[in-house]
Write a structure and sequence with these properties.
Elements lengths: L11 E5 L4 H12 L3 E6 L2 H5 L6 E4 L5 H15 L4 E4 L14 H29 L2 E5 L13 H21 L4 E8 L22 H12 L9 E4 L7
Parallel strand pairs: 1-2, 1-4, 2-3, 4-5, 5-6, 6-7
Helix pairs in contact: 1-6, 3-4, 4-5
Length: 236
């Protein structure tokens, strides 16, 4: 199935980062709307708690062997991939002077290199099947810098640069790319970060997820590119 099909048709969707946060909410919403969804994330126990998925596979997206296995398993379960929702990522809030080499490598490996590994395979699958939707959630720090987030911003800026260039390569193949620059979504992402944030002023995770679902179910002739959604303020 390509994106030229009716917007109301059942979509075959692969979601990364589905064990928590935005990815998890998108998965639950799509499943409730009768789409066929394959899930991946780091936490297998959490993935197993999402009922009625087409399948799950927990693992590390920075492993090329795991990514190959994931894509093969997704195709085996779904038959094809119409929509790819890439929510996986890792956060890091540290000033440059306090950062270690390993800190930088971890965040760029997870947020940038893993994006390359899986996008490369998904792009070819969609191109051969006539098109698809590629949705990425870099967050607002994939668009704007922030003090204390240099490595994180670098990883997200890098992933965006890669994907927007890839978009040009695959535009003639019927693949649409959408980027969601959410500015502060109330998810477990913030639990391990040393920042003063006002959680109740953030974007509710179900609202963020519904924005993504709306794009997935939008008419195929409409192209949604960059989407910026921010609360008035969420950081002290």
């Amino acid at each position: 199935m390509s994106i030229v099909d009716n917007a109301t048709d059942v979509k075959k969707v692969l979601i990364t980062g589905a064990s928590s946060g935005i990815g998890r909410e998108v998965a639950k919403s799509l499943i409730s709307r009768k789409h066929s969804v394959f899930l991946t994330g780091r936490n297998e126990l959490s993935l197993n708690k999402i009922e009625d998925s087409a399948g799950i596979l927990a693992g590390d997206l920075t492993s090329s062997a795991f990514v190959s296995n994931l894509v093969e398993s997704s195709i085996e379960s779904l038959g094809n991939i119409d929509v790819f929702v890439h929510c996986a990522g890792v956060g890091l809030i540290k000033k440059v002077k306090d950062m270690t080499d390993l800190d930088f490598v971890k965040v760029t490996n997870t947020n940038m290199r893993a994006t390359f590994l899986i996008a490369q395979k998904i792009g070819e699958i969609m191109a051969k099947s006539g098109g698809g939707r590629f949705i990425y959630t870099p967050g607002i720090l994939g668009r704007a810098p922030m003090s204390g987030a240099s490595a994180y911003c670098a990883s997200k800026f890098g992933a965006i640069g890669f994907l927007k260039s890839m978009e040009l390569e695959y535009r003639s193949k019927g693949i649409q790319f959408t980027y969601f620059y959410f500015g502060g979504v109330d998810t477990p992402f913030w639990d391990k970060l040393e920042m003063n944030v006002v959680r109740d002023k953030m974007i509710p995770v179900n609202y963020a997820a519904s924005s993504i679902v709306n794009v997935i179910e939008s008419p195929c002739h409409l192209v949604t590119g960059d989407v910026i959604i921010q609360p008035q303020t969420h950081q002290l």
